[in-house]
Write a structure and sequence with these properties.
The chain is built from six helices and no strands. With 156 residues, it is mainly alpha-helical. Helix 2 (26-53) runs antiparallel to helix 3 (60-74), helix 2 (26-53) packs antiparallel against helix 6 (131-152) and helix 3 packs antiparallel against helix 5 (105-128). The longest helix has 28 residues, at 26-53. The radius of gyration is 17 Å and the shape is elongated. The protein starts with a helix and ends with a helix.
Length: 156
Amino acid sequence: MKKLPKLLLALSALAVAAGASAQVKPEDAIKYRKAGYSYMSWNMGKIKEQTIDNPAAYNKDQVLAAARTIAAIANSGMGALYVPGSDKDAGGQKTRVKPEFFQQQEEVGKIARAFNAEANKLAEVAAGGDVNAIKAQFGKTGETCKSCHDKFRMKD
C-alpha cells in the first residue's frame, strides 16, 4: 500500500514539473541551463584540482559533495530547459546550442542518459574515497560532457 501514495506523489510532481517547464520563457530557460552547467563545471573543477592537479589537497568530503552536486544537477531534468525558442539567443541571453540539438532528440537522449549514468557513478565512486578510482570515473564523466559539446555546442 505504501507504494501507491509514493507513485501518486511522483506522478503529481511530474505533472507540476511538466506544467512549469511549459511556462518557462526561452530567455529564462537559457539562463537557468547556463547556470546549471556553470555550477557543474565549477564542481568538476574542484574534483580535478583535488584528484588530478593537486592530490595532496584531496579532501574526501569536498570531492564527495562536488560529485553529488554534479549528479543532482544531471538528474534534475535539465532537458526541460530546452524549450521552443531557446535554440537561439533570446531576451539578452546568448546560447551556443546548435540547431541540431533540437532535431536529433534520440541522439541527445542517448548522450544525456550516458552523462547521468556517469555522473551518478562519479558520486558513488567518490563516496568510496579511492582517489585513483575517482580520477578514472572523473575522466569518464568528462568524456560524456565533451561528447555533447562536440556534437551540439557551437564554438566560441
